[in-house]
């Protein structure tokens, strides 16, 4: 056990020494990886902060069922009962809006009052206002129910009163896909950068590795410092990326605050949760070590 620990301490010291011997190239590699890491961190912060923002902007998704003329009161009540039975737990509320009440509500709006006074009769149909419970996919649920209800007897037209839900859901889906693509790009950059760094280090230390083998060094002993080099590069890049993302929060939150105030809402970006950041950092460290292993295995066969 002591021998194993001593070998790992030696490998760590060698890796640190190699970083110090090439400070500019090492720093350049770390900065490149850190910049790539900072972008998805900020993207995740935007996505995370958009969830409470959506709740501030949102009203519960609503649908309006306009009834065919001549629908009797018992038929209207039967439709409401049928809605409640068919929608089940998706339905938060369903109530009748009589045509006379709808006309009075429109007359209360000065923009409509003069036009409605010119009409001899009430042109509005009776309607049923349906409010849905919040869900992970409100647009899909509302669209599915609307397509079903349009085919019912007595229903003339179904209007989705919360089309913004579809747009918001599409935007958040786009952000999620974008973050996924960024994550793939980060993986490629980490692997390529560390692979190339270790390749150059292995070629630079070619004679030292040959001498070590002549005196009995094992392959694991030869490769271990390079694995630490890749892991240290990933660790340094993760810490720098976190610092860059934190520094970018201040100006971004200032701009977002001004934008949100114009809509009467509060919106501020925050870094992702600590467990998520730790897991991401660990993944980058592992990727660095894997890239180093692949590179040193390929370039130390001499």
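-> sequence recovered:
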């Amino acid at each position: 056990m002591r021998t194993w620990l001593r070998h790992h301490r030696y490998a760590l010291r060698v890796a640190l020494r190699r970083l110090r011997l090439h400070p500019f190239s090492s720093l350049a590699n770390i900065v490149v990886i850190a910049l790539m890491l900072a972008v998805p961190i900020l993207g995740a912060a935007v996505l995370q902060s958009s969830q409470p923002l959506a709740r501030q902007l949102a009203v519960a998704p609503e649908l309006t069922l306009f009834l065919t003329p001549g629908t009797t009161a018992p038929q209207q009540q039967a439709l409401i009962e049928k809605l409640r039975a068919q929608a089940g737990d998706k339905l938060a509320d369903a109530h009748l809006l009589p045509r006379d009440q709808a006309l009075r509500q429109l007359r209360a709006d000065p923009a409509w009052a003069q036009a409605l006074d010119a009409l001899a009769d009430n042109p509005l149909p009776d309607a049923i206002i349906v409010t849905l419970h919040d869900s992970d996919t409100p647009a899909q649920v509302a669209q599915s129910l609307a397509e079903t209800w349009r085919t019912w007897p007595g229903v003339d037209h179904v209007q989705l009163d919360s089309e913004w839900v579809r747009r918001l859901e599409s935007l958040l889906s786009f952000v999620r896909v974008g973050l996924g693509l960024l994550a793939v790009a980060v993986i490629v950059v980490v692997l390529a950068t560390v692979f190339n760094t270790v390749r150059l280090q292995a070629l630079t230390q070619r004679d030292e590795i040959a001498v070590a083998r002549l005196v009995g060094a094992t392959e694991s002993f030869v490769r271990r410092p390079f694995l630490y080099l890749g892991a240290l590069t990933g660790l340094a890049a993760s810490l720098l990326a976190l610092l860059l993302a934190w520094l970018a929060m201040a100006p971004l939150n200032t701009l977002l605050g001004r934008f949100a105030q114009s809509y009467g809402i509060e919106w501020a970006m925050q870094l992702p949760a600590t467990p998520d950041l730790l897991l991401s950092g660990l993944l980058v460290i592992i990727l660095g070590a894997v890239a180093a292993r692949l590179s040193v295995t390929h370039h130390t066969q001499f």
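Strands lie at 62-67, 91-97, 127-132, 155-160.
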